[in-house]
């Protein structure tokens, strides 16, 4: 037999596994909750003997309560995200791990870790999230103390070589009867072949009952599969024993590394004589994929659904407005607003693009005309191909919006709006127009002539809808809101000051008076 005298006890460290859902969840928290604040957020991790030395975090890590799967045990984490990559690199990581290590040491000394043994598995995640590129930098630290120094007094052996199959079966059975929070670290007593399992708090009191040390076993759930070395959780467990049981400092401890039933091992551990002058240090920073101490990096842009990626990116700038400029901005209400655009010309195209930028997802166009060759250079939703195909403006605009942002619900309706002073081309257009207005939250009046806004104005007032009129001059513009009032004061509409009913404003007009002659860019200003 090979002697193990004074062989230093070594531990297999955790390896982090970050699910993509962790980043998706944190992206929302950063944009909507944390914003500019660099705050430490408590999170959960989980580990299991089924996954060799893996500590996993996912979207449930941010829950208030731990929601682990079967045969998984919780770890207590602390997540800090930095606002810039430079601050992420310069953050004092030695001090960070010492600060949290000191808190864990206090929990062990005060007995808090005895009441809640899962505190012994403690970790830190320092991150930087580039939310424009979906690049994430992260660095895990799995907290562990440099004390106490331990060594093996005998070679590591399989648990099956020390206990009978019946005893091992009873051990697993009674371990499963403990509460989840107590299952990670516990004690067992075997006397006269009978296996008794104790939560850690009760087990410490057993030490004072006169039972010989041959009957006492310290036990922990081990996520490591190495046949010779225990996993990382044992480090802080030994620190707790060393701190809370000073009478055992000169004794040999029998430690069971509970793994899958056939892989569990038994260690016989002794504490090295303590150097009183030696300062306790806290360690645990994870190595990167090159096996060097440094952060890890993940690029999620290529793994995300392109449409979902577009949705998140559209919302990015809007959410950033809430960080400093408009904290009370209600983006949910803006996004849910359905908009009806009467007119898909110069104003209609500009307003539609502005609404899209504000995150509005339902836009309906109404227009009777086709795209002409003079339109594409002034009307941003049309192309030369639309002119050649003589596509209806409303339908072409709706299709163009979907090409810009696939998630938008855009519809084009070819319809002539009935106007005073002109004949009614299709009587069915009037009830269809009324139905469209009743189905939308906001109506934009963006047509070429004044009289074409008259009937929609009446219908918007009838159905208590917000109506916004926009009109362009050469280098001037008018934007007027009426319809649904915000207070007891009822706002006047576009026609309230008229002495006579509107007539045919295009009759006996020259070409420059019939077309929209306006300085390029005014429509974008008005639309904004």
UniProtKB/TrEMBL annotation:
One of its GO terms (molecular function) is Atg8 activating enzyme activity. Residues 9-304 form the Ubiquitin-like modifier-activating enzyme Atg7 N-terminal domain. Gene3D superfamilies: NAD(P)-binding Rossmann-like Domain (3.40.50.720), Ubiquitin-like modifier-activating enzyme ATG7 C-terminal domain (3.40.140.100), Ubiquitin-like modifier-activating enzyme ATG7 N-terminal domain (3.40.140.70). Residues 319-520 form the THIF-type NAD/FAD binding fold domain. It comes from the Eukaryota. GO terms for cellular component: phagophore assembly site. One of its GO terms (biological process) is autophagy of mitochondrion. InterPro entries: Atg7_N, Atg7_N_1, Atg7_N_2, ThiF/MoeB/HesA, ThiF_NAD_FAD-bd, Ubiquitin-activating_enz. Signal peptide: none annotated. It comes from Graphocephala atropunctata. Pfam families: ATG7_N (PF16420), ThiF (PF00899). This is Ubiquitin-like modifier-activating enzyme ATG7.
């Amino acid at each position: 037999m090979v002697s193990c005298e004074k062989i230093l006890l070594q531990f297999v460290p955790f390896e982090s596994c970050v699910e993509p859902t962790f980043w998706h969840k944190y992206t929302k928290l950063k944009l909507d909750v944390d914003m500019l604040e660099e705050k430490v957020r408590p999170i959960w991790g989980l580990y299991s003997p089924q996954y060799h030395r893996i500590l996993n975090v996912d979207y449930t890590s941010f829950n208030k309560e731990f929601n682990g799967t079967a045969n998984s045990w919780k770890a207590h984490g602390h997540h800090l995200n930095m606002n810039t990559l430079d601050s992420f690199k310069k953050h004092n990581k030695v001090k960070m791990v010492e600060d949290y290590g000191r808190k864990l040491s206090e929990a062990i000394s005060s007995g808090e870790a005895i009441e809640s043994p899962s505190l012994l598995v403690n970790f830190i995640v320092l991150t930087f999230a580039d939310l424009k590129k979906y690049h994430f930098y992260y660095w895990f630290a799995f907290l562990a103390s440099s004390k106490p120094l331990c060594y093996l007094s005998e070679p590591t052996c399989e648990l099956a070589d020390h206990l009978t199959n019946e005893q091992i079966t009873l051990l697993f059975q009674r371990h499963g009867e403990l509460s989840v929070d107590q299952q990670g670290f516990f004690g067992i007593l075997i006397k006269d072949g009978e296996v008794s399992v104790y939560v850690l708090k009760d087990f410490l009191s057993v030490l004072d009952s006169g039972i010989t040390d041959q009957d006492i076993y310290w036990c922990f759930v081990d996520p490591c599969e190495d046949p010779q070395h225990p996993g990382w959780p044992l480090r802080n467990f030994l620190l707790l024993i060393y701190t809370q049981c000073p009478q055992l400092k000169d004794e040999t401890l029998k430690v069971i590394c509970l793994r899958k039933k056939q892989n569990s091992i038994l260690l016989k551990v002794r504490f090295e004589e303590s150097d009183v002058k030696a300062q306790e240090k806290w360690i645990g920073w994870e190595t990167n994929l090159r096996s060097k101490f440094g952060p890890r990096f993940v690029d999620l842009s290529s793994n995300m659904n392109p449409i979902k990626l577009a949705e998140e990116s559209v919302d990015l700038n809007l959410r950033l407005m809430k960080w400093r400029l408009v904290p009370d901005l209600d983006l949910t209400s803006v996004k849910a607003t359905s908009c009806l655009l009467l007119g898909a010309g110069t104003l209609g195209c500009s307003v539609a693009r502005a609404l899209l930028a504000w995150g509005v997802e339902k836009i309906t166009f109404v227009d009777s005309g086709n795209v002409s060759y003079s339109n594409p250079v002034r009307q941003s939703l049309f192309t030369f191909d639309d002119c050649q195909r003589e596509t209806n403006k409303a339908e072409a605009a709706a299709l163009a919006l979907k090409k810009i942002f696939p998630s938008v619900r855009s519809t084009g309706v070819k319809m002539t709006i009935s106007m005073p002073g002109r004949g009614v081309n299709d009587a069915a257009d009037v009830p269809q127009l009324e139905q469209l207005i009743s189905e939308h939250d906001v109506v934009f009046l963006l047509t070429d002539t004044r009289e074409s806004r008259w009937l929609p104005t009446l219908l918007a007032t009838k159905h208590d809808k917000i109506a916004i009129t926009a009109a362009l001059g050469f280098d001037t513009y008018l934007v007027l809101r009426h319809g649904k009032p915000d207070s007891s004061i009822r706002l006047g509409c576009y026609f309230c000051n008229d002495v006579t009913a509107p007539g045919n404003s295009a009759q006996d007009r020259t070409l420059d008076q019939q077309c929209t002659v306006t300085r390029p860019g005014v429509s974008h200003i008005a639309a904004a």
